[in-house]
């Protein structure tokens, strides 16, 4: 179901004006982006795109939760990362005419803005500040991916878990010290290279140590400095 024009306009504006990748642009540049952004709601369980489909747009998550997944050679789904409000994805469509390397599944009702490459590329070419801001955002994203890849090789399970929780906390910082885990323990444990049982034991240990309080997927951080310390040891 497509949103009404006024709602789409409002959501497109929020995608442009309130996300880190565009925050340093001038008001005029933001208005230019708003004019080409198309906003639409997505229901839980739907897909923004599937692995192997032609990549044609940059997407910005305005509201909700999305996960990027890739199917391994053995047919199992591998979670690459979760996307939170303000995150962008599908950016390789702007640089190369390629197929999507992963699928984007909507995990809860979401609003997503789309900037088609035929509209966005000319703006990048004619506005150096926009190109620079976008390049910095892509660089940050690649750096995070490199840091996570390195953590998988040199950090122990507790450090990797702490690093993941701190990342989700920063993505959800509007909720103070509360983190809503984006997936079940089975999926999260797979992302950090451990078992659900080990992940549960580590979380229980943190509860006993007074670092967190946890109920189902809701985690309240009681000792943020200690959690950050665990993630950087």
Quick recap:
It comes from Paenibacillus zeisoli. With about 230 residues, the protein is of the alpha+beta class. About 45% of the residues lie in helices and about 25% in strands.
Q: What characteristic shape results from the CA principal axes?
A: globular
How is the CATH topology of the largest domain named?
Jelly Rolls
Strand segment tally:
9
> How many structural domains does the protein architecture include?
2
Return Rg in Å. Answer: 19 Å
Q: How many helices in DSSP terms?
A: 8
Protein name: Crp/Fnr family transcriptional regulator
Domain HTH crp-type: 155-225
InterPro entries: cNMP-bd_dom (IPR000595), cNMP-bd_dom_sf (IPR018490), Env_Response_Regulators (IPR050397), HTH_CRP (IPR012318), RmlC-like_jellyroll (IPR014710), WH-like_DNA-bd_sf (IPR036388), WH_DNA-bd_sf (IPR036390)
Keywords: Activator, DNA-binding, Transcription, Transcription regulation
Architecture overview:
The protein has 233 residues and is an alpha+beta fold. The chain folds into 2 domains: 20-145, Jelly Rolls (Sandwich), CATH 2.60.120; 155-231, Winged helix-like DNA-binding domain superfamily/Winged helix DNA-binding domain (Arc Repressor Mutant, subunit A). The protein contains 8 helices and 9 strands. The protein has helices spanning 5-17, 27-36, 117-126, 128-154, 157-171, 185-191, 196-208, 224-232, and strands spanning 38-42, 47-49, 57-71, 77-83, 88-89, 103-116, 178-180, 212-215, 218-221. The strands form 2 sheets. Strands 1, 2, 3, 4, 5 and 6 form a 6-stranded antiparallel sheet that branches. It has a 3-stranded antiparallel sheet with strand order 7-9-8. A hairpin with a 5-residue loop joins strand 3 and strand 4 (77-83). The longest helix has 27 residues, at 128-154. The protein is globular, with a radius of gyration of 19 Å. It starts with a helix and ends with a helix. 30% of the residues are buried. The model is unreliable at 1-9 (pLDDT under 50).
């Amino acid at each position: 179901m497509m949103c009404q024009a006024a709602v789409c306009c409002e959501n497109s504006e929020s995608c442009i004006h309130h996300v880190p990748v565009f925050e340093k642009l001038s008001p005029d540049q933001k208005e230019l982006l708003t004019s080409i952004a198309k906003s639409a709601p997505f229901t839980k369980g739907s897909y923004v795109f599937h692995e192997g489909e032609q990549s044609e747009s940059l997407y910005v998550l305005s509201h909700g939760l999305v996960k990027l997944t890739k199917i391994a050679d053995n047919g199992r789904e591998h979670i690459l990362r979760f996307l939170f409000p303000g995150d962008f994805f599908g950016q390789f469509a702007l640089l190369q005419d390629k197929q999507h390397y992963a699928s984007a599944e909507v995990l809860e009702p979401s609003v997503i803005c789309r900037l088609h490459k035929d509209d966005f590329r000319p703006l990048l070419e004619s506005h150096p500040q926009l190109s620079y801001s976008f390049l910095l955002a892509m660089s940050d994203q690649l750096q995070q991916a490199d840091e996570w890849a390195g953590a998988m090789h040199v950090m122990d399970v507790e450090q990797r878990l702490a690093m993941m929780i701190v990342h989700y906390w920063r993505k959800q910082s509007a909720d103070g010290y509360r983190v809503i885990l984006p997936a079940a323990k089975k999926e999260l444990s797979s992302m950090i290279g451990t078992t659900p049982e080990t992940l549960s034991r580590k979380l229980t240990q943190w509860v006993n140590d007074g670092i967190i309080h946890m109920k189902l997927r809701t985690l309240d951080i009681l000792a943020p400095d200690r959690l950050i310390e665990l993630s950087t040891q």
